Amino acid sequence: MSPLTTSPAEAVGLIVRMRVVSQAIAPNLTAVLKIAREQVDAMIAHAWEDHPDEACGVIIGLEGSDVPTRLVRMINAERSPTFFRFEPQEQFALYKQMSAAGEEIVVVYHSHTATEAYPSRIDISLASEPQAHYVIVSTAQSGPSEGPVSVRSFRIVDGAVTEEEIQVTE
Amino acid sequence: MSVEVRIPTVLRTYTGGQKAVHGNGATLQEVLDDIEERNPGLKDRIVEAETLRRFVNIYVNDEDVRFSGGLNAPTSDGDVVVVLPAVAGG
What is the CATH architecture of A10-169? Predict the structure, then answer.
């Protein structure tokens, strides 16, 4: 991947509140997303490439590990600046791969291209991966190329949104 | 023998945490009715007004049931049904 002039350290606000998430549903997860810098870079690059349409994808890891290891770009079947949906056959193929390998979705990411990096009402109502970190990349400021982006992570369980810290590892 | 129904994480609250449950029936509808008896509330998360919910994808042996009869899709012993919520948002 080509070097990015906006470093993720600038792009990612290393801020954020920690709150206890639903331990009953996700006992091994904590209110922190630990993620490699190259994966943050890859999500941002994908968001830039697809701007002004929303980009979407996942980072998968071993089941129960809460460690995101392999980023997979998914087709946005909606090809829309305001909506995304994984292409069903592609999602099913990924499901089969993950089942066979004992993997699961650790991160679901998508971009917002005109609004802030916060879950929309429809993001909340359709969220169906309670074990996952929902990462949103906003390209509202940067547009389709290098410039300021914001990257934030959330848990979305039963309609409740909890923002969490992103810890970027080298 | 029976039909195995794989349950996504988000719906395992209805199956006592089980990743898969088993049911009998000659159609998807019958299988869902059968497993509903032991897992009350599950069917309502998959079916709405007698049709499949828009943001739930279901596969019988790798075939998307939207193209094979929906709730009337045929099932038989040994089949595997996968329930997969769409990943979508705005």
Answer: 3-Layer(aba) Sandwich (3.40)
